[in-house]
Amino acid sequence: MYNPNDITLNPNSTTTPPHQPQPQNEHDTTAVPTVHAPVSDESFDVDRALAAIEESTPSPDPLIKVNPRNADAVIENHQEDVRNGLVSDDTPVPPMVQPSVPHAPVAQPLPTQQIPSTLPTTPTIPTTSNTPDSPAKQAVHQAFGVAGAVTAATAATSSATPTVPTIPVVPATPTTTTPRVINTKKSGKRISFIGFTIGCGIFLLLLLGGGALVLWSMFQDPNQAWTIIDRASGELLIKLFTGTIFGILTIFGVFFLFVNLFRLASKKNTRKISYIGGMLVGFLMLGAWLGAGIPAISYLNTLSTNNVSTGLMVEAYVLLGNNESPRHINDDTPPLRIAPAKILFELNTTVYKATVGQLGLQTTPRMTLDCGNGETFSYSNESNTFWPCFYTEKGDYPVTITFNYTDRSTGQMTEQVFDMGSFPIDGQIALANINGTSQTKLLLNNDKTELIAGIAPAKIRFDAQDLISDLQLPTNDITWDIDGDGIFERAEDVVFSESFILSKLHTINYKIGTSPYTYTFDLRVQQSDVPICMIDVEDTTSKSYDFVISFVETNADISQYGFEIINTTTNQIIDRRQSTIGSLSYDFTREWSYAVKAYFITDDGSRGDCESDDFRVGAVPYVVDYTTTVQWPGESSASTLAQSDVLTINDDETWTIMSIPTKLAITIADIRPRSGTVTPIVELDGEPILSTNNENFSLTISAVGDHTLTIGVRDTLTNETSIIESHTIHVELPSIEGQLQVSPNSVGDEPFTVTLDASTVTLNDPDDEVVYFSWDFGDGEVKKNQSQGRIQHTYYFNEETQEGIYHPTCTITTRKGETMTLSLADPITIKRALRHAEIIFDSHPAQLANIGENVDMSLIVDGIPSTVIWDFGDGQNFQCTGRTCNEVTHNFLDTGTYAVSVTISYGDHPDVTAKKNIVIQ
User: Fold this and answer.
1) What phi, psi does 775 have (nearest 5°)?
2) How far apart are alpha carbons 917 and 897 in whole angstroms?
3) How far apart are CA 864 and CA 908, in angstroms?
């Protein structure tokens, strides 16, 4: 029997084993193929050779069919691999085949390979199996046995022309081999990890989304919702749910994006559409976070209790006069919002309850209303309102409500501010305190609930010009009830003044246009520490008037009076008079509007004043209210017309201007009575001054000499002209310009030292210079031809004349002999100094003495007393005159505490009393 182990493959040998069949001729196809292989020392591997044969075997012929017993298992396994991502879905199913009819294969040349030089002594023969081998394997084994299989395998894998001698292979006895057995066990369906994760994620998203939706619906009905859960907890949960939902979306988005990106980059020769689709899903999830998640979280942050939307939590009402009920600002006939006005804010209970519900509060918070004008008021549960806000000026006021409460979630005091919007005041009546030629804006009291008119008597100017313009009223249809008695005694008075004598709260009522309501505000007139006076004005002829001063509830003795005549149109003092009696007769030279201010000094040194209401001298059919401003040379802006050395107004109403060119601007505020055919006219030297709106007139004075300025009205229907006022403007260039000033002020207690300053004078002649300042201090002392332009002087109250008002002057003299006298706008007023007295225990400064000891006492006192009365407190007293009473000695006989007092009398001052205790032991 042939033993394959005895075969030696020698590449240099050409001998063919004798038992090897030889081909008969070159056309004999039954000959066994020869194997051309290089010699190798490696042992031959049969299984490897068989595997090579299978790999090189052509596709099965039509007679080879799929094994039906294994096909289902193979397909199921292949699908499972696709689901687990082990293979792509385009990988073909591995074939499982068996021959339908056994037949011998046609031998194919094998590729050249290394053949082991020595075959294994005992070839491995697989065990028999019911599954037959492939046709190639069977043919090899049947023809050649093991060695033949090796030779056939080698020949089958060879594709090159033989380079070595052929070695005949003796066929071995055919043996049966067992082919590979494929597991035919059929497995059931399994759930993948990815599918399980996606399913759980979808379920969690639905659960969280449902919870967030429930909480959101609770926000829509907070009155019911927050009885179950407080708002703070509800906010926390809805934010947590929403954040978790979008957090899961973000995680899944990142997972899908990077996993599919990795597969797209690592998988070769596979379809990539599925990976691109997975990346697209990841991008969509991340886009959901960026496009919806971030805005949703931002919006939920606005649901915090710091930003609860309250709407109109308060309703505004205008308080009216004459016992009329407050009116809502959105009434069918809404009231006007005019300052000064009191606005009452009432709580809107519906919005309030909704807000409290949204905050999750079960107790009433402490509420404070900020009116926007500096006033704050607490809420009153009894009246359901806040204290009225008092607005005094036109403008928009931001109104807010502040809640102070305990936060249930933190247990801390929390403050929440709710914006009620801007509350507008559409117009205002300007109010000012008039004192001579000065005007002071009225201020509020400390609680900002009342306007302070000043100390009685107070003269108040009412100006509604801007109000008429702001409300665009066609006429000056405004009526006034000044004393609050319900009777409207003033009509069509847009600008006027009124004096208030009594110290109390005065109620002012007025009506405007066609509005059916009565508007109101209060003025507080304060108590005066000096007697209150008032002036009665009586006209005796067309231009002659008597002024009489009277006092309200006082027994004070008046030692001196002073009067100032004021032109209220130009706001200038045109004359001053002094008198020892409380009356004055005065003749006016021009038709104009005037007022009289009176000064008085009591016997104890107190100074007081009062002012009359405005009165008209020489009434005319029409009244023109206007203002005049002046712009001096070199100035960039205009200023209100005022009396000075540059512009003086004489008794005959001549305006003297000492500087040119000077620009004047006249603004017509009102013409009374108003008529649609009446227009104002302004003329300079008979030439009309043109105006684009019949309100503003501008003119320039540039020539030296006298000019005539007239202001009047013209009726366009009748073409009649009425001259209301006429002024003579005298223009000259002064050689000296300047003014006299006083510091620190013009009123003080004696002794009162002031500084008078005339050093600011200037000369228009460059070749001239000031050489002297001559001072007349008005108290009898004069200093002539002084070189200094500033000087100090001390004033005292004149005990002999009982006079304390002084009018100092300074006369300027130049080298060329030009002179000019400067005076103060207001006189210097000196108040009588109060006397002072003090008791000194010289021998017993500790105010402690023994019975029987002599106690020396002295008196420190101002001035020269006329009478001194000592009262030692033990029933004994002592009276003397002059300074001899300043030192006394007294002996106390009993123990106790004694109040020693001294009463000092003066001939020209009130009595002064001093007291001090001493203890006797």
Assistant:
1) -110, 130
2) 7
3) 10
SS3 372: coil
| Sign of the Cα pseudo-torsion (79, 81, 87, 91, in order) | negative
Q: What whole-number distance in Å separates Cα of residue 441 and Cα of residue 437? A: 14
CA pair distance 417, 403, nearest whole angstrom: 6
CA distances from 450 to 392, 429, 525, 887 (A): 10, 15, 10, 55
Helices (H) and strands (E) in the chain, counts: 10, 62
What gap in Å lies between CA 98 and CA 69, rounded to an integer? 11
Contact (CB, 8 A) for 306 and 324: no
What residues form DSSP beta bridges with 742?
756
Of 819, 761, 816, whose CA–CA distance to 790 is shortest?
761
Distances (CA, A) of 654 to 317, 643, 688, 731, 762: 53, 12, 20, 10, 24
Enter the DSSP assignment of 5: G
3-state helix, strand, coil in the chain (%, to 5): 20, 40, 45
- Hunting for tokens 């601007």 — which residue is that? 665
Which residue in 658, 656, 655, 662 sits closest to 632, CA to CA?
Answer: 662
Tell me which DSSP letter residue 421 carries. Answer: E
- Sort 680 into a burial class: Cβ within 10 Å, 0-12 / 13-18 / 19+: buried
Contact predicate 130/166, CB 8 Å: no
Give 674-695 as a 3 state SS string.
Answer: CCCCEEEEEEECCEECCCCCCC
Tokens 């380079």 — which residue?
163
Q: How many CB atoms lie within 10 A of CB 306?
A: 12
Tell me 792's DSSP state.
Answer: E
The torsion angles phi and psi of 345, rounded to 5 degrees, stand at -105, 120
In whole angstroms, give the CA distance from residue 339 to residue 324: 18
Please count the CA atoms within 13 angstroms of the CA of 6 that sit on its side-chain side.
Answer: 7
Pick from 579, 613, 586, 580: nearest CA to 597? 613
Q: Is the overall model pTM greater than 0.70, yes or no?
A: no
pLDDT along the chain (921 residues), means of 10: 43 43 45 43 51 51 47 70 68 55 46 44 44 51 46 43 45 48 49 63 70 60 49 68 75 78 72 74 72 67 46 86 90 91 88 76 80 86 79 93 81 85 92 88 83 90 87 78 88 85 90 91 88 86 86 76 87 88 88 86 83 75 81 75 50 69 87 73 88 87 84 71 79 78 86 90 82 92 90 86 86 88 88 78 90 89 81 88 80 91 78 88 87
DSSP-assigned letter for residue 110: B
Structure tokens at 567: 């032109």
* Whole-number Å distance between alpha carbons of 519 and 337: 9
Tally of CA atoms within 13 A in the half-sphere of 535 that contains its CB: 32
Q: Which residues is 585 bridged to in the sheet?
A: 546
The answer to whether the beta carbons of residues 450 and 524 sit under 8 Å apart is yes
Residues in the chain, how many? 921
Report d(CA 258, CA 324) in Å as an integer.
Answer: 78
- For residue 491, what are the CA distances in angstroms to 476, 508, 672, 752? 9, 14, 11, 48
- CB of 253 closer than 8 Å to CB of 289: yes
